[in-house]
């Protein structure tokens, strides 16, 4: 067989895949949220190298903007090169050393993920219990500390699976610090949308994802550690079990050296920069207020449709509205109908709440009156089609 | 202090960061390479959800296109949600179990990274030696197998740090399989630019990055495993040490279930799809031929400037041209001059070759006559400024 023939044959086998034409969705699920046009435009910016002096400047700016958004002065504030679970594993996999004990919550999906990550890091895991749909009670946390003396305590500030906001954060961090433990806060669904003050509330480590209240495509995920936490990381006896997420190596790239570790996802960093600029322009506290206000209208509208919120008002999470599926209504049929007929994404429940709730996000650029009106109108139609009357 | 006052104060502290205006570089370094305008356009496409039926279709298409590009029918062919080092660690961290022995090369920067990842996975590491700038000799590989009986053998198909192409791949995989070992090939700088035939050459696991010969922004990185390798992964006694990169969990998302694991970097998957469509349109073998031909012109032009290639012709790597820095020329001054005066990126040597070579990429959309003519003209000027005459 001649070379020319081989080439032709191989080329003939090339898959025929058409132009990229995804549907034009309105994203009101648990993330990703609608991305601001300015951020999409940043994504199409031609690349510079990941060690280019101009990129080093961009890295500095992103770090500064992240600090503002986290409300922290932490030096170790970086985007991790992966999606939210990568920043989560960077936090847990570096802070938890073999032999350490980590206390994790049971009141939602993401406490279970914390457990799995801590175990893989070589840690022991103990739990503080609360039902899915409730926040942690500081009394239970204190009791768990007294019983187990954990080294690290993880909690979920905004539980995406249940739509519950954890109140009393400073109370939780006080308990942990009174017991000489470190606190890791999962801020995936709160950063940039719901009040979180890393320094004032004395959170040692916090991580997030960009595709929630920051309305940025996923791929570079916020992480911040205070000096005390970073000292523990840098003093580890055994290297972290992931090379990719080893913060002592990432320190070389994001710290003063700017030495090569891995190729950063340049475009995702561009996008995060633009998304964070939008946060700074709006002002972080105004942004929190907008989420409360717009999601408040959503909540009122849902209640007007005769629906009940899953979380009591005091734990209501503006960025993720968990609403109960009424008796006799097929939750999946409503979700599919909204997607097919309205190009509108909302989500079902996860884990313990599967089938019981819908999850309606109200995050970042999706937290707009336009989106809220649309989701309420579409949901009213879809419920009526199922025989449910407001 | 009133709430209004607090808000204003916080907002006043917001960092002032201007519009994103990076310089317009021509990227002829070791990656990222210039990104095709169609791929940049794909990056600015509005997002759908990561579990949207339309995204599941896109995932299928990307997998099919990746199989074509890797020349494989492997079912387990996916983009890993991170940059090339993430797909590298996904390969090593899943295949290497505690107690396994991995054989790694010493002839470049990335063998050292393999070693670190294998050790963190709980493996023992043994080495097969060759100087930086040489490929592995099959005789040495055979000898290392006889001496150490490793379970896993990793080699670098295209060494980005030295500009050396590893020939005799089928010979290496035969040796490994005769010793019942698995083969992992680092194809970061070869996939889509230099001949690599995963199935025909009997490579068990191969990984790559998107920002080299695929000319796609980094963030979602190709990985393929054959059934035999995936069986080892799924039969592990101990879970892999990274949750984020656990292939048994990723199987749930990219396999038949399409169940939630983590939020995929949707936009990066869009971009990869477009970059791979360009591969399919050109035809993989034509693309390899283009890289040989355009990089051949680059090599000839460099030699016309009186420069010597670092690798002998038989190991020459078209996608990464390592060229010796002439005596009396300051390598860093040339690099900085090209960047400052020509908006042109080339790179210095790494590790053992630091200061001795320049690395000039010729990858994907950067492998064009236009780019080659530009880099040759600019380099001629820069060398003349240093007193070097062709």
Automatic annotation (TrEMBL), chains A, B:
InterPro entries: Aminotrans_V_dom, PyrdxlP-dep_Trfase, PyrdxlP-dep_Trfase_major, PyrdxlP-dep_Trfase_small, SP_NH2Trfase/AEP_transaminase. Its cofactor is pyridoxal 5'-phosphate. The keyword DNA damage does not apply. GO terms for biological process: glycine biosynthetic process, by transamination of glyoxylate. Keywords: Aminotransferase, Pyridoxal phosphate, Pyruvate, Transferase. Residues 48-349 form the Aminotransferase class V domain. Signal peptide: none annotated. Pfam families: Aminotran_5 (PF00266). It comes from the Archaea. Residues 1-16 have a biased composition (Basic and acidic residues). GO terms for molecular function: alanine-glyoxylate transaminase activity; L-serine-pyruvate transaminase activity. Residues 1-34 are annotated as: Disordered. Belongs to the class-V pyridoxal-phosphate-dependent aminotransferase family. This is Alanine-glyoxylate transaminase / serine-glyoxylate transaminase / serine-pyruvate transaminase. It comes from Halorubrum sodomense. The lineage of its organism: Archaea, Methanobacteriati, Methanobacteriota, Stenosarchaea group, Halobacteria.
